[in-house]
Amino acid sequence: MVDCIECGADVSLYDDIEAGEILDCGTCGVELEVLNVDPTELDTAPELQQDWGE
Amino acid sequence: MVDCIECGADVSLYDDIEAGEILDCGTCGVELEVLNVDPTELDTAPELQQDWGE
Amino acid sequence: MTASTIVVKIGGARAVNPTEVLDDVAELVEAGTEVVVTHGGSTTVDDTLEQLGQSPEYVETPKGVVGRFTDEKTMEVFEMVLPGLLNTELVTDLQSAGVDAVGLSGVDGGLLTGPRTSAVRVLDDGKKKIRRGDHSGRLESVDADLLSSLLSDGYTPVVCPPMAGHEQDGQITAVNTDADGVAAAIAGALDATVVFLTDVPGICTDPDDATSVVETVETPTDWEMLSDAAEGFMSRKVMAIENALSDGAPEAIVADGGATKPVTGALTGDGTHVH
Amino acid sequence: MTASTIVVKIGGARAVNPTEVLDDVAELVEAGTEVVVTHGGSTTVDDTLEQLGQSPEYVETPKGVVGRFTDEKTMEVFEMVLPGLLNTELVTDLQSAGVDAVGLSGVDGGLLTGPRTSAVRVLDDGKKKIRRGDHSGRLESVDADLLSSLLSDGYTPVVCPPMAGHEQDGQITAVNTDADGVAAAIAGALDATVVFLTDVPGICTDPDDATSVVETVETPTDWEMLSDAAEGFMSRKVMAIENALSDGAPEAIVADGGATKPVTGALTGDGTHVH
Ligand SMILES: [Zn+2]
Ligand SMILES: [Zn+2]
């Protein structure tokens, strides 16, 4: 378990959580990006515009 | 053995002669290119200017 | 044949008959039409990656759209294949056909620029993730000066991705961008008609029925039909067409690259014409 | 710093410090000097051939000179590496340094042309043979118009082999040609000073003694010393220098590409200066 950086509510983690994964806070609905694991570090997940190449 | 196309003299062939090889006629000194083997076909070997790349 | 400047997008190796297309381009250039040729080459990138013992990586967005993830090594192979092998061969073949072709990637002279986008949202095994290190970019600007100067000197530019991707620190990185988008952006910048040569006779209402080609798209109702008809890879082509037209291209045509004189045919009525 | 147009030949990947060279080029361009950058890339071609599971082939002439035999597959890899990977990266790095670089191979716009030479005489296991299928050419003509036009528009051309090889049937084939020869021919065509950046401080009378650099070559006696001093790969460079000077280049310089500001240093006295 880890605290949502927006609302402070508990957010549950998978066992095999990886850096880069996006979690949804069930309480406030914000998207959280896992920056690091062990210890878990979160930030608000960036909105990204998709630009495909060839 | 094969006839020199310039002077008609006998030119000896290796057993394992290959297309592309250049033979020297011992009699007239001309350079002969082996165009084909079995049967052997000869032509005068072209003078070539060497142009190297990278 | 009224267009004075046209952009011809040549599809993948299997999509067009190169000799037929290039001879057709040569006749148009000879007759005074200014032509910019553009091309991609994704299939050859994949083949070359495999020959080098690597696998092309495709990722899926949370919305289910699939696209290439271009890591650093893939970008190197991309540079080898597009501005290297394919562009050089196309330029050489055009020269043989009597066209004074000049090959350019979007990096040359800052021809095609925009921000690099290195992070993408992907859906991996059901999980949403952010992947960083993608070498892609958002094509925002075409420097038409270089193209106009070459065209007025009698050259025929042959343009391909990559584009010049601006990093946040001001550095430039060569990044991947969609070849249909390149053709569209250049047509928009030059106010030129763009002809997309593909392996289908045009945009079809029934993809399995070659006789269902939409001939003209002009009214909002036509556009609605077009969007419905455009499936799979065609949806990105329709997006490119919208961009070309809104940027100033008078017309976009999707036509069969395998036809006889495919470019002339498209300019005189074959394929789907979008206004 | 008097030269208004210079040609800078960048050596192999291991021969020069790219950042130092490119920043130096950027300062020269900024100060109003017209610069044409040229490069080869033989080592990377060999590395890429190996990665593709193939071996580079070198053949020996009856006179004992060794050179690359460029078969069709090797030519493809050559196009991938030189106008593809290396040229694109050099253009991108120059753009990052603020230089509006445009990459060109000798095929573009018919920049570098001459007859293709597909047959070579080789010595194979002691036997003289003729090998056909070589993709090489004799560089006979430089079209300076494209370069002059780009330079006067403020662009910095970055030029590499291949060249446009004319076949006997009139077709054009991309063929291999020596990168030192490319730099020399362009310098001759533009009446420009040519700077060859290498991994040595200049042409040395004793290759093992870096202090034995020949500083100036002007008199016939100097030239004799130069020919004696030039060993191995330097003998082809000396041949390129002779061609550059006889074509109209005022000066050819061989200098250390690993030095600080190596181009400016060469123009102000470092290295071997040949007149
Ligand atoms: Zn929350
Ligand atoms: Zn004889």
TrEMBL record, chains A, B:
A Pfam family reported for this protein in Swiss-Prot or TrEMBL: Zn_ribbon_LysW
Bilayer-crossing regions: none
Superkingdom field: Archaea
InterPro entries per the UniProt record, alphabetical: LysW (IPR005906)
Signal peptide positions (record): none
UniProt protein name: Lysine biosynthesis protein LysW
Organism of this sequence: Halovenus rubra
Classification of source organism: Archaea, Methanobacteriati, Methanobacteriota, Stenosarchaea group, Halobacteria
